[in-house]
Specification:
Blueprint: H1 10-13, E1 29-32, H2 35-47, E2 54-55, H3 64-75, E3 80-85, E4 94-95, E5 111-112, H4 116-131, E6 134-140, H5 156-170, E7 174-176, H6 178-183, H7 200-219
Parallel strand pairs: 1-2, 1-3, 3-6, 6-7
Antiparallel strand pairs: 4-5
Helix pairs in contact: 2-7, 3-4, 4-5
């Protein structure tokens, strides 16, 4: 996995294994997203094996600013049947350069990475680019932020999801509601209290939802 300023837990990075990178090998389905999407990617690949080839960038896609800088490289000049995408958790995160928590997260002294209005504007630009290189798009709502997270306020994900849904509904984009799925998960689904990342077992549940959504959007013809 390439270097990235956006933190990805080792147990998520290690799960990528032999997943083909979008810039080097074509496939039918592209997954774009942060470390949460990295965590569910291997399960989606396995569940769709023999049906569709799934790729993703060899990177954490970070926030929408990072997305705009890298989207053309991640698409790899390839036309995709489906792009399943999410940005959100890194956009809504508060950071401070002197914070000692990984990712410089600090919701007391920090500044929000990408305010919600700019997030929506960035997402609108990203959708326009992706639509030009895909038959179908699927937006995954941002997963739940547990209480006690060092750089994120629980509830901000709902504001960002609301802004994102306004954008994707303009374009008739299929919605994979991972927020609704993860908010119902028990606390034991997270790798630690106040951490947005999930256990391997929880990622399997999320993977099934993502794979189901991809199959559903493809069945619509």
């Amino acid at each position: 996995m390439t270097d990235s300023p956006f933190y990805t837990p080792t147990h998520d990075r290690d799960r990528l294994g032999e997943v083909p990178a979008s810039g080097t090998r074509g496939g039918q389905v592209l997954l774009l997203g942060d470390s949460i999407s990295i965590g569910y990617t291997p399960g989606v690949c396995r569940l769709l094996q023999g049906f569709k080839t799934v790729c993703r960038p060899d990177a954490n896609c970070g926030d929408t600013e990072c997305g705009l800088e890298n989207i053309h490289a991640w698409l790899g000049g390839h036309h995709w049947e489906v792009i399943h995408f999410n940005w959100g958790l890194h956009d809504l995160c508060y950071r401070h350069p002197e914070a000692r928590v990984y990712g410089n997260r600090d919701k007391v002294r920090g500044t929000q990475s990408v305010p919600v209005d700019r997030y929506a504007a960035n997402l609108r630009k990203l959708v326009r680019v992706m639509r030009s290189q895909a038959d179908r798009l699927v937006f995954a709502t941002t997963t739940v932020v547990p209480g006690g997270e060092a750089g994120r306020f629980s509830g901000d994900e709902m504001k960002y999801n609301e802004a994102a849904l306004a954008v994707v509904k303009e374009h008739g984009i299929f919605i994979d509601d991972l927020y609704d799925l993860t908010r119902a998960m028990p606390a034991s689904s997270f790798i630690a209290p106040g951490d947005v990342h999930f256990t391997v077992e929880a990622y399997e549940v999320i993977s099934r939802k993502v794979a189901q959504s991809i199959r559903e959007v493809l069945s619509k013809g």
